[in-house]
Amino acid sequence: MNAVDFLLNKYIPFDDLERTDIEKFRKFVSEYNGNIFDRTPGQPTITASAFVVNPNFTKTLIMHHKIHGFYKQFGGHADGNPNLASVATAELFEESGTKGQIVQTDPIDIIRWNFPERTKNDIFYPAHDCFDIAFLFIVNELEKLKINKNEVIDTKWEMLETWRDYSPDNITYKTNPQNFDYQQRMYKKIHIINIDYKS
Fold first, then answer.
1. Model-wide pTM > 0.85
2. pLDDT in tens, 46-104
3. Rounded to an integer, what is the distance from CA 177 to the centroid of its chain?
4. Residues paired with residue 27 on neighbouring β-strands, in sequence order
5. CA 84 → CA 16, 62, 77, 113, 132, distances in Å?
6. DSSP state of 142
7. Please, what is the angle between helix 16-31 and helix 178-198, to 10°?
8. What is the DSSP pairing of strand 101-102 with strand 74-77?
9. Structural domains of the chain, count
10. CA-CA distance, 69 to 194, in Å (whole number)?
């Protein structure tokens, strides 16, 4: 079962925010006439992200993204690829130089947030909704990274508790205040997955 089918038919939202977001995602999938995985200017888009933890599930690896201007998880647009787990894997490798170990091929989270308007590769993209679908990866803290300097300014390992309460002074983040609630949720999910993973 691919990630979208899983989200449409089997995924159980964790909280009210995720319940709202997945309802909007299901509405988008059912009503959109184009390829949901394409990036059409002005239309909602789908991204796949890699949420990276260390083997002890105590830290997360995040990157300082050049365009968005703050530390966030790795990921990018599907750009026509319906295999979102492979998109997340490819984005993690492209941005950090590591493939990591994916914990499960089913997504662990979905959040809807707004991309501010921007121009990329000479194409203007108006502000639009983006459905980010997250997968969990494990990376050893000692692994040497090779960052893609075209997209990434820096990477760092952050304690999960610190990341959970992270609130950068940034326009992208300020237009998406739900990100703070998302971080609280992901922190709880990682704790639950850690217990299941070690049992």
1. yes
2. 999 999 999 999 999 998 887 777 888 999 999 999 999 999 999 999 999 999 999 99
3. 16
4. none
5. 24, 19, 9, 18, 10
6. T
7. 100
8. unpaired
9. 1
10. 30
For residue 51, what are the CA distances in angstroms to 26, 60, 67? 23, 7, 19
Q: Could you tell me the CA-to-CA distances from 192 to 56, 144, 160, 180, 196 in Å, in that order?
A: 13, 28, 13, 19, 6
Could you write out the DSSP letters of every residue in 119-130? Answer: EETTEEE-SEEE
- Domain that residue 116 falls in: 3-198
Q: Any idea which residue has 């000692």 for tokens? A: 142
3-class secondary structure for 167-191?
Answer: CCCCHHHHCCCHHHHHHHHHHHHHH
Q: What is the CATH number of the domain that holds 13?
A: 3.90.79.10
Hunting for tokens 């893609």 — which residue is that? 148
Residue 174 pLDDT class (50, 70, 90 cuts): confident
